[in-house]
């Protein structure tokens, strides 16, 4: 059975899952979920968010990091979650750090209605939704997320959102310490998580702020190369090469 990923194309958590699947070369199916009615995940009564992953045995796993752990068990080559206790502890710290990053990014992405509309522009390129649905999702989503970003800014005490993003890029670059990846010579779970989180914002203001940091920018290029050269483990045509350039979802 081909694994399935129920997603929003521009959701950072969904892109965490896409990144590990792509790195492992897994052939999988993506199902784009309608952000308003979520009819595609009507089968999931208790969990009404994305990502949702249906593994090759038909089992449902919810939430991005548990999904990544399951994928690492399901497709163990190459291994991304560290088994050495000291290295595993370090990588878990960077995974926790990535949660701070993903919470703060919306304060830059949705800091105005115009920027929020740019972020939601991805929805107009999804063919499964009709013309009216696309416009409704785009404009309603932009309005709601602009309000949400203000709440996040207050809750996370982010006084200067752009400076926050620059600082996060610096911390990641410093953490690399001259190594190609946080995992050393090969990407680890934290590498794939941060790459997935930042992947959808590459063409937005937040992405440009991140890549103004030379170490972060060089790491992104290495990650792109690592994912592009991964062999496919299962049969059939895979949507791995899709490049998402906007941010959204939950």
Give a concise summary.
The protein contains ten helices and four strands, in the order E-H-E-E-E-H-H-H-H-H-H-H-H-H. It is mainly alpha-helical and 250 residues long.
**Strand percentage:** 5-15%
How are the strands of the largest sheet arranged? 2-1-3-4
What is the CATH top level name of the largest domain?
Mainly Alpha
Shape: globular
CATH architecture of the largest domain: Up-down Bundle
Report the mean per-residue pLDDT as an integer: 91
Query: How many distinct folded domains?
Result: 2
Poorly predicted spans: 234-250
Output the number of helix runs: 10
Rg (C-alpha, Å): 17 Å
Order of helices and strands: EHEEEHHHHHHHHH
Could you name the CATH topology of the largest domain?
Answer: Glutathione S-transferase Yfyf (Class Pi), Chain A, domain 2
Q: Mind summarizing the main beta sheet?
A: 4 strands, mixed
N- to C-terminal distance: 27 Å
Give the proportion of residues in helices. Answer: 40-55%
- Secondary structure: number of strands: 4
Could you say which structural class the secondary elements and strand pairing correspond to? Answer: mainly alpha
């Amino acid at each position: 059975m081909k694994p399935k990923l129920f997603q929003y194309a521009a959701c950072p958590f969904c892109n965490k899952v896409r990144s590990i699947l792509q790195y492992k070369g897994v052939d999988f199916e993506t199902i784009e979920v309608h952000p308003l009615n979520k009819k595609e995940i009507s089968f999931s009564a208790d969990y009404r968010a994305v990502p949702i992953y249906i593994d090759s045995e038909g089992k449902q796993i919810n939430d991005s990091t548990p999904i990544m752990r399951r994928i690492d068990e399901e497709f163990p080559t190459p291994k991304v979650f560290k088994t050495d206790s000291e290295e595993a502890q370090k990588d878990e710290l960077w995974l926790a750090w990535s949660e701070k990053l993903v919470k703060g990014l919306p304060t830059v992405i949705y800091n105005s209605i115009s920027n929020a509309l740019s972020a939601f522009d991805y929805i107009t390129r999804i063919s499964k939704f009709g013309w009216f649905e696309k416009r409704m999702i785009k404009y309603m989503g932009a309005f709601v997320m602009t309000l949400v970003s203000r709440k996040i800014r207050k809750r996370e005490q982010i006084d200067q959102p752009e400076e926050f993003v620059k600082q996060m890029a610096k911390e990641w670059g410093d953490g690399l310490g001259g190594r190609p990846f946080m995992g050393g010579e090969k990407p680890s779970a934290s590498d794939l998580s941060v790459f997935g989180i930042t992947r959808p914002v590459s063409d937005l203001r937040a992405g440009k702020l991140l890549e103004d940091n030379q170490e972060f920018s060089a790491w992104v290029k290495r990650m792109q190369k690592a994912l592009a050269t991964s062999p496919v483990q299962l049969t059939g045509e895979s949507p791995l090469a899709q490049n998402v350039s906007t941010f959204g979802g939950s």
